[in-house]
Specification:
The protein has 265 residues and is α+β, with helices and mostly antiparallel strands. The chain is built from 7 helices and 11 strands. The strands form 2 sheets. It has a 7-stranded mixed β-sheet. It has a 4-stranded antiparallel β-sheet with strand order 5-6-11-8, with no helix packed on it. The radius of gyration is 20 Å and the shape is globular.
Length: 265
């Protein structure tokens, strides 16, 4: 089980994709569509460890909730196994690898990678000369086929954090759209999709993702013609999603994603 994301990036080492995610992305645009982009991901893997323990107990025929002592032991075992199978990441090396991987016109301004056992943080700020280049930012590299072991790991839904960003300039308007990532739904798709996940497993997944938070913040110097943000603070539009809001979101709203239209000038 590969606990760390490849390219180090601390990128929240999203092993099974399950865990308490808190992800925030941001854009600060200039009139020429240059600017800064921010990304931060906090992951707490404690819910995932508990989920794995419950699955193990179920396979062993045990009923009821695990005890506090069992959960504590499962955490210790998980961390002990991780130390045996993984080398400790070097934050400076991770920073250098990230800077090297960026496309021309995009540079690393700041970064912060922390591994605190079952809790991890990855955060960075990028400067870009053209917003369109952000789509090329990728946070890991595929392993050569000859060094891969076992079946392919689930994809990290934040591997290309700005990959869904679309900017359309038409006349004197700029339309910016992107998707609101839903790690829970992506995990269900990895497990077979709609109707293939048992009610018991679905409950366990929701328990693992119960602290989910996904946020987008966009600041621009243009007049806003229309938007679907949840709130506005000054020139900053803010979208914020939780597990409950993603579960109950109208399909039309989900398909619409994050959307704002500006007037140039």
């Amino acid at each position: 089980m590969n606990r760390k994301a490849s390219l180090g990036l601390g990128l929240a080492g999203c092993l099974l994709l399950t865990g308490c995610f808190d992800v925030e992305q941001s854009l600060v645009l200039q009139k020429d569509l240059s600017g800064k982009a921010g990304f931060s991901m906090k992951v707490n893997l404690e819910p995932m460890v508990t989920m794995m323990l419950m699955m193990q107990r179920s396979m062993e025929g045990k009923e009821g909730e695990p005890t506090a002592a069992e959960i504590e032991q499962a955490k210790k075992d998980f961390l002990a196994n991780a130390k045996k199978t993984e080398s400790q990441p070097d934050p400076e090396k991770q920073k250098a690898e990230l800077a090297k991987s960026l496309p021309p016109g995009v540079k690393l301004l700041d970064s912060n990678f922390q591994d605190q056992g079952l809790k991890m943080l990855a955060a960075f700020t990028l400067g870009f000369d053209d917003i369109h280049k952000l789509k090329q930012v990728k946070l890991s590299e595929p392993k050569p086929a000859e060094v891969q072991q076992g079946p392919p790991a689930p994809e990290n839904p934040f591997d290309t954090p700005f990959g869904d960003l679309e900017i359309t300039e038409q006349g004197n308007t700029i339309l910016l759209t992107t998707k609101a990532k839903n790690p829970l739904e992506e995990q269900k798709q990895e497990m077979g999709g709609e109707g293939q996940v048992s009610p018991e497993m679905e409950k366990q997944l929701e328990d693992a993702f119960k602290g989910l938070r996904i946020a987008w913040k966009i600041e621009a110097p243009f007049p806003v013609l229309e938007h679907n943000a949840h709130r506005k603070e000054g020139n900053t539009l803010i979208w914020e999603y939780t597990l409950d809001s993603l579960k109950t979101m109208d399909p039309k709203k989900a398909a619409e994603g994050i959307r704002v239209k500006y007037k140039k000038g």
